[in-house]
Write a structure and sequence with these properties.
Layout: H1 2-11, H2 14-25, E1 27-30, H3 33-43, E2 54-57, H4 60-67, E3 73-75, E4 78-80, H5 92-108, H6 111-121, H7 129-138, H8 148-163, H9 172-185
Parallel strand pairs: 2-4
Antiparallel strand pairs: 1-2, 3-4
The structure holds zinc ion.
Length: 189
């Protein structure tokens, strides 16, 4: 049912309309060139429409983050971030996690929201880290088999634990992530 509602919402340009009004209530800006460059290393260069992404901070969001859980969330092409704390913009791995949700939206439409909410309630974010990736890979698991939050988390951890420290290709941690990241870049999510 939720999948059907999402489909209808997408057909009637719901995401576009939502963002049109949402952007009046929050402050938005584009991704910077360096943010796009950092994200490209994890998600791929032309994987998502980086130029259509807006980062929203402040105004109505100040209230939402003050009284809500204070965690970043993504509405279609808009990444909503608190101004301070671990979920704020300067933590690039967090931004990459949220851009995975943008990627999910571009691939499957609005239903990604319901799938991500289900993931938060059921499987959670944890995927047994890189040793888990290795053993699940051996069991034939692909990136698309992880839930919507684990997918974000894998990309986030790859940025923080592989890209940032500049692990060489032969490194076992990097090698564990690489096949899954290749699938992410290929849009297999
Ligand atoms: Zn998430």
């Amino acid at each position: 049912m939720k999948a059907l509602i999402s489909k209808v919402f997408d057909i009637f340009q719901g995401p576009r309309l939502f963002q049109f009004f949402w952007h009046f209530l929050v402050g938005v800006s584009r991704l910077t060139e360096s943010e796009i460059k950092a994200a490209s290393l994890v998600l791929g260069e032309n994987s998502i429409k980086y130029r259509s992404v807006r980062v929203a901070e402040g105004r109505l969001l100040t209230l939402i983050f003050k009284f809500g859980p204070g965690r970043a969330f993504t509405t279609f092409h808009t990444v909503n971030l608190p101004k301070s704390g671990y979920h704020s913009r300067e933590h690039s791995e967090l931004l990459i996690h949220e851009l995975v949700h943008v990627y999910q939206f571009e691939r499957i439409g609005t239903d990604y929201i319901f799938q991500a909410l289900r993931a938060q309630q059921e499987g959670g974010y944890f995927y047994d880290s890189w040793p888990g990736l290795n053993s699940w890979r051996a069991n034939g698991k692909h990136f698309k088999d992880y839930n919507r939050e684990q997918q974000g988390q894998i990309a986030q951890d790859y940025q923080k634990d592989v890209i940032e420290p500049g692990l060489p290709e032969a490194n076992e941690v990097r090698a564990a992530y690489e096949p899954f990241i290749a699938e992410l870049k290929a849009g297999q999510l």
